[in-house]
Structures are given as structure tokens and as C-alpha cells.
Amino acid sequence: MAGSANRLSKWMEGTGPFSDIVISCRVRLARNVQGLPFPHLMQDSQAEDLLQRLRQALANQGARSADHRMTLYRLRDLAVLDRHVLVEKHLISPQHARNVAHGAVILRGDEAVSVLVNEEDHLRIQCLFPALQLEQAWQLASNVDDLLERKLEYAFSPDRGYLTACPTNVGTGLRASVMLHLPALVMSNQAGRLHSSIVKLGFMVRGIYGEGTEALGNIFQFSNQITLGRSEVDIIENLRSVTAQIIEQERSARELLRKEMRHQLEDRVWRAYGILTHARVLSSAEAVQLLSDVRLGKDLGILTGLTSAGLTELLVMTRPGYLQKLADRQLSAAERDVQRARLIREKLRAAAAGATSSG
Fold this sequence. Notes:
alpha+beta
């Protein structure tokens, strides 16, 4: 079932270039179908026509493995909790989760591909990879784009490029983004200056769940603003270049903290680990911040036995929808806080036990 709480998405694997700072990357293509009004103006019959054409496109996937086969799900056919989990795994947007009338999502088995159907545009083809693998994500997005275009004629202008519901996406229709963990820049009060300089370069800075969300757990998303007048290669390369600069700044800030505030840094990391391994009640915001401190401790070698994948998994599994999916029932806020603390205790202690036995 889509949104299953029993598996990790591809982007959560925690492996790849610069995985100590770059949690994931995403490439998204906005596409609309010639002859159909934009989703906010579509009639029921037009939405059904698009879904039928997509089913036909997916019928021509050939002999693919379960991990690489794509399936279309109507949002109205998914339970509310399943839709919440899809949001928490970054596979659909919060806005799309509410679009039960016409909305659908196409998911590849390993969840590296997520196509939002009838969100702001007819199609938003997303490819998500762990760490800094923008070129691989772009290549996969291009392949999915080609597959769907065999059954669909896209709305395209020779002068303007791909036509989209929002003018800011006109042109290539490509948005590339990276999700970075930047605790040292935040702790050294450099994040504000970084934000200003990145915006001046034409990039957007958002929180962990995109537009209008906070940078919880020192996690930030950076993405391009301009899609018109630049090639896909230019957009990818510009983001990669900016990301490399941010990585260098974060590493320099981490090294400075280690040299000048080693005891305070170690105390902060061990206190966070101590709370997470013993707390009985944890709010979502507190858990995210403490997991950030523990992740930093793992990346600096202060803590051993932990993995990036395990910590990213906890980041997602402790969100409200995912906790309720695991419990298979609705939970009150107080019940979620208890379940969150229990889940984190169990996962961290299991990681410690595994490290001890392997050592």
C-alpha cells in the first residue's frame, strides 16, 4: 500500500557523496497536458481522462522489478494516515494530501520516484535520492518524463518552454533542491547571513517540509528560483556549486566548534543522547532538535554505533502521521509524545547493542 510505514524511501538510505551534511536531493519537473485546463479549473471528466491516460502510460513499463515498477494511487482511495505518511516522507505535498477529489500519486516501488497528479500542475515528477546525487536524480526524472510523454502531449511554447500554472515554473519546469543538516552554522550564528547571501544568488531557503515551514532540527532546503532562460544542466550545476560552498562553510564551522568549544559540544551531544535514550515523553519539536544534536555527534565521531540512515528513519518515523500508522490507530497528542519517546529509546538502544555485538 502507498505510504506504508514498513519501509524506507530511497532518499532515506543515508549513503552517497557528502552524506554527513546533505541528507537528500530532489529534482522536480512541472508538466501540463495540452488541451486540458490547469488542475484548479478542471472538470471531473477531464481529471478522469488524465488519470486514464496515465494508467495507459504506466501499462507500457515492460518487465520491471517490484522496486522499479510504478503504480498510480488515487488519493481518495488512501486512508488519511497513509496520506499523512506520504507527506512526512516528502513524497507528496501537504496541499496535495488534501486534494482527494482529483488528486493521485504515482510511486515507484523504492519511492525514488513520486509523481504528483493534479496538484498545482497536471504532473509534478519528483525524483529523490540520498546525499548529493543531483545528476542521478535528474537523469531518472528525465527518463520518467520520457515514459509519460509517450502517451501525453505536453503544453509547450517554443518561446517560453513548458507552460505551468505558476509563471515562476515556466521554462524548463525544473526545480532542484537539496536538504542540508547545518547545526554548526546555526550554533555559530552564521545561518542568518548564509540565508541572505543564498537568496541574493537566486535560490530559495525553506524548512524541512518546504514552503512556509520551519527549519526544524537545523535542516534547511535550498532550491533554484528561476526556471526560465536557463537549461536543466545549468540549474543542476548552479545548485551543486552553491551546495559545495555551503558544505565547506558547515565543515569549517564544525571544526571551529570542535577546537574552541570541544567540551561544550561533547556535553551537548551526550546530553541529547542521554535524553533520547531515557525520556518517557517527547514532543515532536524536541525530538527533532535532539536528533539533530545526536546526528552531529555521530558525524564528528563523538558517538559511535549510529548510522545516517537510522537517524533519518527516526526523523521520519517520529512524525505524527507515521507514529499513528505504526500504532494502526489515531493517537492523541499526549499519546504520540509517549510513543515517540518509546520508539526512539528502542531504536537507539538496538543500535548500541548492535554496535557492541559487532565490536
